[in-house]
Amino acid sequence: MYSEPEFLLRTELRQPNTYFSILRALAHGRRTPNEIAGMAGVESASLSTYLQKLRRLRLIERHIPVTESPTSSKRGRYRIAAPLFRFWFRFVYGNQDQLRMLGENAYEELVAPELADYVNPLFERLCQRVLPTLVDRQFRDIGQWWFKEHELDVLGLTEDGLVAGECKFTSNPVSEGILSDLERTADEVRWSKRPTGGEPLYVLFSRSGYTDDLEHATETRDDVRLFDLSDLVTTEYNQS
Q1: Which residues pair with 50 in a beta bridge?
Q2: What pTM was estimated for this model as a whole?
Q3: Contacts by 64-71 with C-beta closer than 8 Å and gap 24+?
Q4: Dihedral (C-alpha) 183, 189, 192, 195: value to the nearest 10 degrees?
Q5: In this protein, which residues make up the domain named DUF234 (predicted)?
């Protein structure tokens, strides 16, 4: 685990240290070219060359808002494709000496404090993957959506309208405020093929459940669905 990703990359890449800095930035949640260049210390003008090489090697992926065209969108974001490399550049790269010193305490000291932040993007993708099974609609596409300061973890495009979702892999139950934020953000979505009169469906996914106030407030609402970790695990298991 300490050296396998490094060995594989050094056999494929010239200037491996520059690529390592870029991958480390991605592993720490930098997604846009400006964010990546800033953390990696790479000139913005030359960054695209490195990103293209990493994409050709299938080490990273470019994704866009689900409402936009892959060929014309200018709002692409990047992420590491392989979980092994994402974990290695988040927790191992640059920390090898510290990991050896900590020994069996390495998880508690280095991994546990950042685990929720590390897992949340994976949790979001799991929620996207199981959405068609949990919600009985015909989906044209499912992904993320963002525009300026607005962002949706999950957005499903259907013949009946939008399915907008928020994913929380935290130790606290989700409250009414999260639902209110989701409703406001969904109002900002612009989709040229959005059906006239289609009402959004709001879905929440939570690792730690929901507050009593939120559950009570949504009991009589047909446009809100609440899912917990057991719903996701059961659905994913049944699909495998």
Answers
A1: none
A2: 0.89
A3: 65/143, 65/144, 65/145, 65/146, 65/147, 65/155, 66/141, 66/142, 66/143, 66/144, 66/145, 66/155, 66/157, 67/145, 67/155, 67/157, 67/189, 67/190, 67/191, 67/192
A4: 0
A5: 88-171
Contact, 57 vs 135, CB < 8 A?
no
Q: Which two tokens stand for residue 15?
A: 């200037």
Percent of the chain with pLDDT over 70: 97
Q: Which CATH number fits the domain 118-239, given the four candidates 3.80.30.20, 3.40.1350.10, 3.60.15.10, 2.60.120.10?
A: 3.40.1350.10
Pull the structure tokens for residue 216: 């009570």
Domain positions in the chain are 4-94, 118-239
pLDDT digits (tens, 9 = 90+) for 116-159: 999 999 999 999 999 999 999 999 999 999 999 999 999 999 98
Q: What is the pLDDT of residue 196?
A: 62
CA distance 65 to 51: 19
8 A C-beta contact, residue 129 and residue 153: no
Q: Which fold has domain 4-94?
A: Arc Repressor Mutant, subunit A (1.10.10)
Q: Please state the rounded mean pLDDT for residues 183-198.
A: 83
